[in-house]
Amino acid sequence: MSDNAGTTNGSGVTDTGKSTVDTEGARGLPRRTTWQRLVGASTFWIGLVLVALYVVFSVLRPDAFPTLYNFQTLLIEAAVLLVLSVGMTFVIITSGIDLSVGSVLVFSGVAGAMTMEAVSPDGDATQAGAGTIAIGLLLSLASGAAWGLLNGLLIARFRIPPLIVTLGSFGAALGAAQLLTGGVDVRTVPSALRDSLGFGQTLQVPHMVLVAAAVTMFGAWLLHTTKFGRYTYAIGSNEEAARRVGISVTRHLVLVYTFVGLLAGLAGFMSLAYFGTTTLGGHSTDNLNSIAATVLGGTSLFGGVGTVLGTVFGVFIPAVLQKGFVIVGVQPFWQPIAVSVVLVAAVWFDQRRRRARDSGR
Amino acid sequence: MGALLEARNLVKHYGSVEALRGASFEVRAGEVVALIGDNGAGKSTLVKCLSGAEQPDSGEILLDGQPVALDSPTRARQLGIETVYQDLAVAPELDPAANLYLGRELRRGGLLGRLGMLDKAEMRRRASEHFRTLGVQVQSLDVPIGALSGGQRQGVAVARAVVWANKVVFMDEPTAALGVVQRERVLDVIRRVRDTGVAVVLISHNMPEVQAVADRVEVLRLGRRVARFTAADVRLEQLVGAMTGALSQEDAA
Question: Which Pfam families does the entry link to (chain B) (predicted)?
Fold first, then answer.
């Protein structure tokens, strides 16, 4: 206060009221405004990139890009990856990784499809009804969750690095799926399932997208508002600290990996409904795509940081690039290159941020 | 006045190494006791036994005069005994309120709470209040505490322990990594905590700090308590003498 008085007494103007009044004591610390929070969040900028891409392609091809049909296919094609990536967000926030999601997706699809065939007459599930479909869904979810549980136990209880455990289940789940099918895709998927979930729409909203949106909203709710989400961040941020305050880290990690397995199971069933076959060979890069989407969306590979909304943006940036390049007439091979550059840049920024912080302020 | 927390003749072996050889210790409500000793004197082991992280092979621990079994840190916390660890045991990506309430989150009322939803606003409000009453300065409640200065971070770590401790707080070198001003802040917090009637056990190598903040000093040497002093009239030479074995007050207790 004294030096403040010294600067003002010369002019005779008593503006000492402007000096730092200790309002903190009385009213608690000032809250940041919504705008400050928004601009401070990396999610905001990632979202801006997505919007910018959409606008650029729309301007380049106003006739072809910003159409309802294009928008719908964009959403449908991203739906399966989005479901996987919501789970991946949880895993990466715990500073883990899951390379097995694509294989678990295939295995779950196979388990669901073969079960539906098994309970149908003559082993042909094409005409199967709702009961059969429900059994198939249940089997897909259960087998996805079982792989996740196995991953989680090996990682949390036996303390094997997630990279190795899920690399193992990446190979094993796909191998098991091929053993079950003899390497031949299951092709008799109930047409009722294909019509309802695969191609069905309500008010122009594809049902695949509805499911993905529901999963995303549930994931966002779980991560950002519940104790489960809080512990997910805490474990990724400082596992030892979480342990010391009495959080059951082992149990929580097992639950997180089971959750991502469950979502992979659901994704497998969605894929079944959409493609009408088990697509044994079609998901070998799903793991990398969902990791890329998650990291692109601002989730830190070092754990403790990330949002579901960011992951949504991270899923759609590559999808928009892919669609946009095709429509604009750029060779779509540029898409992975563009995504990779942005991805590496995103991780580089994240690391710089961390280093700046850790070098002790 | 009787001791709030007392250890009697604790023995702890790690294989063939005897970390504690019949160590005794006591702390009363509303006092700061500095626990000092040379490296390997058994300070850390003693604190681990008293905070539930380790179990002594023999000996007795009494809380409020009653023998207790501190079989886990969780049990110790339930009894009102908290520990501030030397290496900041905070989650740097979480904000100060989240760290303060880590493992003790407040849930919303009703169905949403039963679904696991957190009452973030209430936690934030109460955290802000706790920081204020403890005199812990935090720049902002909205940033991850990794973005705060070392002193503020340590302030949050200390606050987390003392807010929940209604009996005893152990602090293992809480100022070791801090600058002069920040160190003074933490010492202020220690005094405030003591004034609320909680017992504070301070482990420190910094003798001026010990003399500045402690009411009493207990000295460990080779796994045993060798001396007790009142901080106000102890001289540095006495402390050093007791630590090195040049001076011994107590016979094997």
Answer: ABC_tran (PF00005)
Query: In what side-by-side order are the strands of the sheet with B81-84?
Result: B81-84, B168-172, B199-203, B32-36, B216-221, B224-230
Classified as helix, coil or strand, B221 is strand
B22, B224 in Cβ contact below 8 A?
A: yes
Q: At what angle do helices A42-60 and A308-328 cross, to 10 degrees?
A: 20
- Could you tell me the domains of chain B? 1-80+166-253 (3.40.50.300), 92-164 (no CATH)
Query: Taking CB atoms and an 8 Å limit, are B140 and A28 in contact across chains?
Result: no
Please write the tens of the pLDDT for every residue from A25-60: 334 455 666 666 666 667 888 888 889 889 999 998
Task: Report ipTM for this prediction.
Answer: 0.81
pTM above 0.80, yes or no: yes
Which residues from chain A sit within 8 angstroms of residue B105, using beta carbons?
Answer: 227, 230
CA B139, distance to chain mean position in Å, is 24
- To the nearest whole angstrom, how far is the Cα of A145 from the nearest Cα of chain B? 21
3-class SS shares of chain A: helix, strand, coil, % to 5: 75, 0, 25
Tell me the backbone φ, ψ of residue A47, rounded to 5 degrees: -60, -40
Give A-chain residues touching B91 at CB under 8 angstroms: 233-234, 237-238, 241-242, 304
Q: How far, in Å, CA of A248 to CA of B75, rounded?
A: 14
Q: Sign of the CA dihedral B88, B91, B92, B94?
A: negative
- Tokens 């996987």 correspond to A84
A317-332 pLDDT tens trace: 889 988 888 888 888 7
Scanning every residue of chain B, which has its alpha carbon at the shortest distance from the alpha carbon of A305? Answer: B93
Q: Using alpha carbons, list the distances in angstroms from residue A122 to A128, A134, B119.
A: 11, 19, 55
Nearest CA distance, B173 vs chain A (angstrom): 17
Interface of B with A (CB under 8 A): 73-74, 77, 85, 89-94, 98, 102-105, 107, 115-118, 120, 125, 128-129, 132, 138, 140-142, 146-150
Q: Which residues, including other chains, have CB under 8 Å from residue A327's CB and lie 6 or more apart?
A: A57, A61, A64, A65, A70
